[in-house]
Specification:
Helix content: under 10%
Largest sheet: 6 strands, mixed
CATH superfamily of the largest domain: Immunoglobulins
Number of strands: 57
Shape: flat
Number of domains: 7
Number of helices: 0
CATH topology of the largest domain: Immunoglobulin-like
Strand content: over 45%
Radius of gyration: 37 Å
CATH architecture of the largest domain: Sandwich
Structural class: mainly beta
CATH class of the largest domain: Mainly Beta
């Protein structure tokens, strides 16, 4: 807290001897124009920017209080006062300075007004404006259950506050320190968390931070080829594309098969699809071993081995017949009725507009059914014998042509109507407006939706209820539907789905659902080019179809540390510094209480005046360099980029083998080419240094 001093004001009366004047001397207490309260000293300047939860002071002096009726000091969002207004008693004022401390808990423009009400009714005001900003900032968090995560933010001045990190998955971390390490007890479910500080009376505005959900799950490798059995892949193609899905990685540091990089690596929805072409499989004897090794940006490593078998009898990309109801294990199932409705779907690579499912029961043709997109599902009733039954499904392109068979599946079903049913129904699937519901929280775009429930039973499902109300059924009592009206609630509303069979066995499941619409960015005003040390006002206007309150942030990426700005009343001020020069990625992020967001990304440029030199900045990254080089193989060739808005030409490049402190390249040509020799074998670290004419440099390791 800054120091201050108390001063005493008094009236110095002097008796001046001289010639006696019979007229009355002027009375200073009658000079009403000088009566007022005024700021005597302060720890700030008008329109300063100060952090929230810091301590500031002002002292007020009152002049000629005899002519004043009331003096008040208004300070917006002052957490040190019981209210925003402080009334100074005129009657008890003794001439000393009035000391008023304050500390803002809210961000944005804050107003201070010293207000004097004279006996005549005239009001005299002295006003100041301060811009309160939040110093809170948390870098992107990534991790999964059991891993340690470091939480750290720039602190506020007040040491008695509590820092709160809310991950929006039920985990809330509270600590008196601005830096704490925790072990994650559960996986993240939201991509955005919020950080704020609080004291017993006040809470700061929340500052959002990013959560990288791509690296929270178990790192796993999954083969995506259709013809897969355990760890073996079967193909009839001599030139075969081996497809692998990597889940649980935020970013891939490396991905190889048999030590060689994959041909294609594509990021999609938090996963990575990687492909490798194997050629001339028809000339290989036996299976090919494919060892897939993956390392992510958290240095987690996983490896899985597959075996690729060539067989020209295998049709490429064969669709699969899936039997969902009745449930089977190893293609064997048990039911307690003779008349059974079979329900299934077709999965895999489907290249035709229509398919037919043909059913053979105990060797006899039982009928065919056309299957159409988008679901490719089917329902087929059969009359089983009272014992074991063989049911064969054939997938064809035509209902009559046997030679167009694309897939075959055979199951064994045992029917025993005399057995006592003690097993409750199974709720196989719940969909809301055609989207499969999960067991946590579901957010739907429409208020009025259709819930469909797929239910199976050993005998027959009697009815299904949703929150106690009966759902409608199809003719086979497999698919039940109910119209429901959702609420706009961040916590969601639970819907209890219960199914009961003909013997009174009952099962229930619960899904939590609400509806919400994504915010919309309607307008924004952000300069595309800005000058260092010049203050700019960013404006972003957004609306929410559900009339929710919105939080808008702007993230500027490009420097060593991301800059995150939180807008208040659609605006925020920013003054770029020299370290911000160059091209920056600017991301506008508008989110509602559901933490669903509208995003907009653009590139902005920060420049300096022509007479100022901007340090050179390397734009080439470590990702531009391969992980492995082979002695005698292709040379390492990398184009070294620098930000065109930085550096004083000409720019030269020097490359070192850092482990050996040996220079291997020194040129103004940005095309770096290097062929390692046998003595370079081993793990090496490359260091690239860019130099400009103004003696500035930048380093990439």
């Amino acid at each position: 807290m800054r120091g201050y001093r108390f001063l005493s004001l008094g009236l110095l009366l002097a008796v001046i001897s001289g010639v006696l004047d019979c007229s009355d001397p002027p009375n200073p207490f009658l000079d009403i124009t000088k009566s007022r309260a005024s700021v005597y000293s302060k720890t700030f300047e008008d329109r300063d920017t100060i952090p929230i939860f810091s301590f500031e002071t002002l002292t007020v002096a009152i002049y000629l209080k005899e002519h004043l009726r009331e003096v008040s000091v208004h300070i917006d969002h002052n957490r040190l006062g019981t209210s925003d207004d402080t009334i100074i008693s005129i009657d008890s004022y003794d001439g000393d300075l009035v000391f008023i401390p304050f500390s803002f808990y809210d961000t944005g423009w804050q107003h201070i007004e010293v207000r004097s009400l004279k006996n005549t009714g005239e009001i005299v005001s002295e006003k100041y404006e301060l811009y309160a900003m939040s110093p809170l900032y948390q870098k992107t968090i990534r991790g999964r259950t059991g891993e340690s995560v470091r939480l750290k933010t720039t602190p506020v001045e007040d040491k008695s506050v509590i820092y709160v990190w809310d991950f929006h998955n039920g985990t809330v971390i509270k600590d008196y320190s601005n830096e704490v390490s925790i072990v994650l007890s559960k996986n993240f479910t939201s991509t955005i968390g919020e950080l704020y500080v609080t004291d017993p009376l006040s809470k700061s505005p929340s500052v959002p931070f990013s959560i990288d959900t791509g690296a929270i799950n178990k790192l796993e490798i999954i083969c995506q080829n259709d013809s897969l059995l355990f760890d073996s892949v079967y193909t009839g193609q001599s030139n075969f594309t081996f497809k692998v899905l990597v889940n649980g990685a935020g970013h891939l540091s490396s991905a190889t098969v048999n030590g060689e990089p994959f041909d294609v690596v594509v990021s999609s929805n938090g996963s990575f699809m990687i492909n490798k072409m194997f050629n001339r499989l028809d000339t290989v004897q036996g299976a090919i071993r494919a060892a897939v090794s993956v390392t992510d940006d958290l240095d987690r490593f996983v490896e899985k081995v597959f075996y690729i078998h060539y067989n020209n009898a295998v049709s490429a990309a064969t669709p699969k017949i899936i039997l969902n109801i009745p449930a089977t294990l190893n293609d064997t199932g048990y039911v307690m009725l003779q008349k059974v409705a079979l329900f299934g779907e077709i999965r895999g690579n489907i290249t035709v507009n229509q398919l037919f499912i043909q059913v053979f029961l105990n060797g006899k043709f039982a009928g065919a059914q056309k299957i159409l997109p988008p679901g490719y599902s089917w329902t087929f009733p059969v009359q089983l014998n009272n014992s074991w039954n063989s049911v064969q499904f054939q997938l064809t392109k035509d209902s009559l042509l046997v030679d167009s068979v694309m897939a075959v599946k055979t199951v064994a079903l045992n029917s025993n109507p005399d057995e006592i049913d003690k097993i409750p129904p199974v709720i196989n699937q719940i969909k809301i407006d055609g989207v499969i519901a999960n067991r946590e929280k579901n957010v739907i775009r429409n208020k009025d939706v259709l819930m469909s429930i797929l239910v199976s039973d050993n005998k027959r499902v009697s009815f299904v209820t949703v929150n106690g109300n009966r759902a409608d059924s199809d003719s086979n009592n497999l698919l039940f539907t109910a119209q429901i009206s959702l609420e706009h609630s961040t916590v969601g509303v639970p819907y209890i789905v219960c199914a009961e069979d003909s013997d009174g066995n009952k099962t229930c499941d619960t899904v939590t659902v609400s509806y919400n619409n994504i915010p919309e960015i309607t307008d924004y005003r952000i300069p595309s080019t800005m000058i260092v040390d010049t203050e700019y006002v960013f404006t972003v206007n957004a609306t929410d179809p559900d009339k929710d309150s919105l939080i808008t942030t702007i993230t500027l990426k490009g420097g060593a540390v991301d800059t995150v700005l939180t807008l208040l009343n659609s605006t925020v001020r920013w003054k770029p510094s020299l370290k911000d020069t160059g091209a920056l990625q600017l991301k506008i992020h508008v989110f509602d209480p559901f933490f669903e967001s509208a995003d907009l990304v653009q590139t902005v440029y920060v420049i300096v005046q022509k007479n100022q030199a901007v340090p050179v900045s390397i734009r080439t990254t470590a990702d531009d360099f391969p992980d492995t080089l082979f002695v005698g193989g292709s040379p390492l060739t990398v184009l070294l980029h620098v930000d065109t808005l930085t550096g004083t030409p000409p720019v030269s490049f020097t490359v070192y083998l850092k482990n050996q402190s040996r220079k291997i390249y020194d040129s103004s040509n940005p095309m770096f080419v290097w062929s390692p020799v046998r003595s370079d074998a081993g793990v090496q670290t490359l260091q690239v240094v860019a130099h400009d004419k103004s003696a500035f440099s930048d380093t990439l390791t």
